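re the bet — no i am not wrong, look at it urself. input seq straight from the record:
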Amino acid sequence: LRVQNKKLYLAAFAAVLGPLSFGFVLGYSSPVIPELREIGDPELRLDSNQATWFGSVVTLGAAAGGILGGYLVDKVGRKLSLMLCSLPYVFGYIVIISAQNVWMLYFGRMLTGLASGITSLVVPVYISEISHSKVRGMLGSCVQLMVVTGILGAYVAGITLKWRWLAVLCSFPSCIMLLFMSFMPETPRFLLNQNKRLEAIAALRFLRGPHVDHEWECRQIEASVQKEGINNSEFKNPSIYRPLLIGVALMFFQQVTGINAVMFYAETIFEDANFKDSRMASVVVGSIQVCFTAVAALIIDKTGRKVLLYISGIIMALSTALFGLYFRMVLPNRNNSSNHGVCFTLNSASSGTESSISWLAVVSLGLFVAGFALGWGPVPWLVISEIFPLKARGISSAACVLTNWVMAFLVTKEFHDLIGFLTSYGTFWLFSAFCCINVTFTAFYVPETKGQTLEQIEAYFRRS
């Protein structure tokens, strides 16, 4: 068993180097945008609108990557898809390093976003299919853990490295992933779906060790493997469309919690609380994310998925309600005007009011980030890797990833307009309401998958 665990964990580690690369992509813009806004070269200098696009164009690339990943994961397999996605990572950073104008920066970010979209789809599927039920939750949660570790790594490295050298550093994890994955097995489920039984047995022997009944597990997987492709009419089958609707809803609700909006204004909030070094503030936020995502990974196979979603949703609902209260107290009157961003809101407040309750914003931010990292950050990605039947896993996962990234783009780009329509405190109270809806949705529709094999989960949807 010790040998089995070591090799299984080695395969999982090789795969999660992809999410680590993904995290570096997301974290790269935070330390780099301030530098590029003040750079001497006018061809590379970003104005406010260009800075917004530099940060958000990644989400558009990732949405396209989600669609491409859904095709690749079923056509060429989980392992080869992961190896192929390292190429746009590296090439994207090469474009950024050699950039001579803003459009080259956009193109490089788009390529790294494309790779991130493929990664966010393929890695959860690969890990869920190589893991056994007792550790699948922990290993699946390591996907989000490595994402936030990558974000934190980019924040910390960005304190000392210039933007080109930071891009060089960010390209390393994907190169290492390409090397490691070349020695790892394909998933047994995909191999059996391709009628490669001997290779599937060999993969199980690598992942489980020599002293396990590989034939028994192989027969269990074969019983649920349906080798024919999926057609549109099959989406009328509840065993196909129910998990798809649950997965899409989880991705939608994850983004409408307001995570991107809150993180976007984190630096402003810390500055108002007298944290003058905004880069160090970002490191603090990143550290909170890493710590609580690690806690989620350690306890998820004991507590279950739904319990963490409940706790996470309640914490986020309370913290966003406190955010709204903070903005309501800081600007009780001015927020009624038509088009105010949060930055304007904070800076327009009287310094006395602002400083006296700035602790409320910091506490709210800390609670929100901790709550999200504990449940609604890692769990939706884990659940969508578990609930889809094998023959629909590629296309269903692609739909979920596309939903997530499109919503991430909309929330990030349209947040200012939402504030103009609802006011700052109204917007955060709307996020709080969505967090309450998340908890209700979890209670009625999300199945508990703790301790079940993928075949048992698929059978559950067929029965219901």
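see?? Confidence is low (pLDDT under 50) at residues 333-353. told u. also The longest helix spans residues 2-37. so pay up
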